[in-house]
Amino acid sequence: MILYLFLLLIALPFIEIYILIKAGSVFGAGWVILATIATAVIGGAILRWQGLQALNRLRSDMQQQTSPVQPVVDGVFLLIAVPFLITPGFVTDTIGFLLLIPFVRHAIARAFLKKIKGSIDRGETRIMFRRF
Questions:
Q1: Which of 2, 34, 39, 52 has fewest C-beta within 10 Å?
Q2: Full-model pTM
Q3: Where are the transmembrane segments (predicted)?
Q4: Ordered DSSP codes for 46-98
Q5: Cα(77)–Cα(112) distance, rounded to whole angstroms?
Q6: Average pLDDT for residues 33-56, to the nearest whole number?
């Protein structure tokens, strides 16, 4: 898993540069730069709005003494979306915008929790404690 993440981190800049060059040759450099800036600004605005919504839901759940799991999960995914949205490029912007869609966030969270639960049920999860 770490190897795949490492390969992705190495390949992603090359993929982004290739797509930006191709888009620049088709649409022109000015339009590509404008689109890159526009996606960052729009993504930031949506991120701010959804972040405030998640924070308000968290406060509401805490006041009602209900489980604040969903607002916390939303907040984590919004934090993950930030670097994707501020990194210039169409691939990272697409990933960032997908993480801003609540349905996509919830589907990823369900799949992730299902995988974790499966590994716990199979006894493949180890919890390590350290004293500092």
A1: 2
A2: 0.77
A3: 27-47, 68-88, 94-113
A4: HHHHHHHHHHHHHHHHHHTT---HHHHHHHHHHHHHHHHHHS-SHHHHHHHHH
A5: 12
A6: 90
Region at 31 (left for phi over 0; alpha for psi -120 to 50; beta for the rest): alpha
Separation between Cα atoms, residue 50 and residue 103, nearest integer Å? 13
Phi, psi of 101 (to 5 degrees): -85, 120
CB 71 within 8 A of CB 52: no
Report the distance separating Cα 89 and Cα 124, nearest Å: 37
91 vs 98: CA distance, rounded Å: 11
How is residue 23 written in tokens?
Answer: 């888009």
Q: Please, are residues 87 and 19 in contact by the beta-carbon 8 Å criterion?
A: no
Confidence (pLDDT) at 27: 94
Q: Name residue, tokens 């800049």.
A: 13
Residue type, 65: Q
**Of 77, 113, 112, whose CA–CA distance to 97 is shortest?**
77
* Cα distance between residue 56 and residue 70, in whole Å: 12
